[in-house]
Amino acid sequence: MDLKQLKAFIAIADLRSFSAAATQTGLSQPSLSRLLKQLETEMGVVLIDRYHRPLHLTDAGAFFYEKISAVLTEIETVTSMTQRLSMPSSTLNIGFVPSVLYGLLPDIIATLKQSNPDIDVNLKDISSYQQIDALKSGEIDIGFGRFAHQDPWIQQILLRHERYVVALPKAHPLAQVRAQRLIDLANNRLILYHQTHLPIATTVSTAFSSSKPKSPASSPIDTDSAAQQHTSLDSQAPLGQNEPITEPLLHLFAQYGVSPFMTTTVSDLQVALGLVAAGEGITLVPASLSTVRTEQISYQRLIHENATSPIYLHTLKDCVHPSIPDLLTATYQVYEQRGITYRPQKFASMP
User: What is the pTM of this model?
Assistant: First the structure.
């Protein structure tokens, strides 16, 4: 059993076609067929049923695919990390979610370049969960995101919590109310824009019978690029009392015993704010977004102390880019200049 055989099997299993797998791998169909046959002969197991179109995995093949895919991913990650350790790049590749770009990230990069004039920075718009794979592949060296991650290859620090504000159309009856409560917003159409939801383990079962808040928790936010297709879904049905609520904004409402009257789901944050500007509903966004479309949108603060969105910084555990300590220093310098409360941290492998 060797890597060529395993990669051939994975390609065939992924695409369910010898011809498509041949195109992807650059191998001929006879070569792929031979590698698969060698692997099956060595294992004494039929992995792929060749008599169906598209090709089907056997039960044994499905089990082997699930397990060996994880092994190959680890091999690729270790290979990439080893290469980067031996030949570190002078460019610092930074991933970020769009909501962070509206905040302090531009100031942080400017501060970093002031203290390190020769540094080369490359910024990439990429969602929080996509950043994990991008870190492993070497596409980025560090990422600013809105979700906590549990991954054996990744280390993460919490930079700070950013307050949510409510975004309302300028003509909305509550547009001039300076301190908003979630319960007062419940009769509106809530526009949802998260492409990533909370892990079920972090959600709560909620009965919508009281406006008393439950234990404080952060409400992560993540947005994918605006290039994604715009899709929407309206719903007037009440949420089930025992169903886990994984959409971050709905989760925040649920902490206060509130279920929005109606929701609309769109592809990203910019589309959500566009609908608010058009008078089609309201939404909640991090405070750094409160400079967007101010001619049509009124942004008002929420009175709830736990109505926040965390900002995380994450990188690989065993392969920290040499410029990351300087980036973290620049981040805290900006926080101090803006009077932002934070708890200084550093990654485990930093000096």
Answer: 0.69
